[in-house]
Amino acid sequence: MERGRPVGELDPRYSSEGAAALDWERARSLLVAAEVFWLSTVRPDGRPHVAPLLAVWLDDALYFCTGPSERKAANLAANPHCVLTTGCNSLGRGLDLVVEGEAVRLADDAALRFVAASFETKYGAPWRFDVADGFFRSGGGTAVVYRLAPATVFGFSRGEEYGQTRWRFR
Questions:
Q1: DSSP letter at 76?
Q2: 14 FRET partner, CA 20 to 30 A, in 49, 128, 135, 167?
Q3: Where is the Pyridoxamine 5'-phosphate oxidase N-terminal domain (predicted)?
């Protein structure tokens, strides 16, 4: 269920003269289509940790997974605040998105089956997961699944006009 369309606020300090705030639908479309995201978490000692991963946008949130013994899972267990970013590495064009929020573990098997089907639809058969006992299972391994509902999303557009848009969620 969509929580509604947040209104974008342009920050003129980081935007070209005459730039306009981006429409949320453009940002949401990029979150749906993006293949690679970067997850930023904080280690228990305060040092940052960043790692690439796959994610799917469903029901106004990003879903991602990681092994239960990986650094990402340990960091999120200690501090669920995190950031997922995606975008383009080109200076002269593109849109980068920074999604801030709290990652919440998803352990309901019915919900996990829906998310697993979405991963396979988006990324293909190599990303097919079985679901059992609150985990994704594949190739003998298990993965913990998280839901990141955005608190704030920043959009950084580049090209003929540069702009920084912020969307806040309640």
A1: H
A2: 49
A3: 25-153
